[in-house]
């Protein structure tokens, strides 16, 4: 082992959507030394490569962890993209900036967490954003993250035709999904400015922030495990054998990375740990409540006279299935051009991705071995309940009905998947199970919860139960997957925990 002599006040593992936020906020206090360890490359704010800046390029293979996961019984190995770069998945995602809904936060409260009602978090959402449009009651004007609302004038004709077809079929027109109303169809809010994706490495870790003498950022550092003296955190051990000492460690490695570090550190289900020869520090249900949103790509070839594909993102129908709980919006139908034009016989494509955003299915994350170079075993368990299977089938049927509406049909030449030959529910359900599309918003592998919550790994401010000096702050601590995309909610989560745990 090689020791780093300096002891950090706070050491952050992972510089993604949450970690970059915390590094910027914690280092505002010049008396606090902050070290950020990022497994991927650390680019200067002006040196991000084109694939990471271009909002129409997602899941860049040069900045990806290379994870795979089990989706369904019929789809045992799915590519599972996660960003490996300063900025994390906010640097490789589709740039969608949807907030979670009030009903989502109400479900968190059922797990005994405190301080996470919509009334608690709305001021935080407003504080983190700068956007020139929308109601002042819901929006901020001067925060670090630049958000913009997609309008009809900037969208492709086929993307807007999807909205018009949705409205023609009885859904409301929504002008601002981050405002008072989410049920209906409209353009996305995005963290994209002049075509550039605003990842947290850009928005929070500006050149000025990176010059702070009390902040050190190290790239290409893979963390093996957290080190303890008894149950008190003393630092971390990296894969190359280096010890980084710290008074407090914060894991921000995401829904897959953070639980893997916890498990290697001896925090997790005792039987699983002892089976791998890991000494148990805290017996907690790490990795036992993985949730992700199942999707299906309902793809179309654009008509030859409507081949425009920029911008790629996009429009949305956010609605409730026939089995949704009161006040719940559990289905997304998104319209994007996130499919190569050369995959279409006409040279242009549009994808209507149907997604179940509030699944009841629960998956797992476990370790394959104690080697930090080995990826964790991810089982999303999509279609784990019959109700989930019925609801995703309903979503795809809604998607296909919109595509056949007279307001949208002239913009497409043919259905590419599943194809017009698929006409009955049994065949469609089989095809969905065989071809699930990861929507990419995994949560809940180290969830927040109160004293009586059997799933809880951390408390309401991310402190890991049963140990001292260790927190987790990222999507893994969300108690239940939200009905939205998750990126802006994770940024808010980091901002809110900073205020509650450190800024007082």
Automatic annotation (TrEMBL):
Alphabetically ordered keywords of this record: FAD, Flavoprotein
Residues noted as binding FAD in the record, renumbered to the chain: 85, 93-96, 223
A Pfam family of this chain: GMC_oxred_C
Superkingdom field: Bacteria
Cofactor(s) needed for function: FAD
Domain Glucose-methanol-choline oxidoreductase N-terminal intervals: 254-268
Alphabetical list of SUPFAM superfamilies matching this protein: FAD-linked reductases, C-terminal domain, FAD/NAD(P)-binding domain
One Gene Ontology biological process: glycine betaine biosynthetic process from choline
PROSITE patterns referenced in this protein's UniProt entry, alphabetically: GMC_OXRED_2
The keyword Flavoprotein is annotated on this UniProt entry: yes
Residues that, per the record, bind substrate: 439
UniProt keyword Flavoprotein, yes or no: yes
Protein name listed in UniProt: Choline dehydrogenase
Species of the source: Actinacidiphila rubida
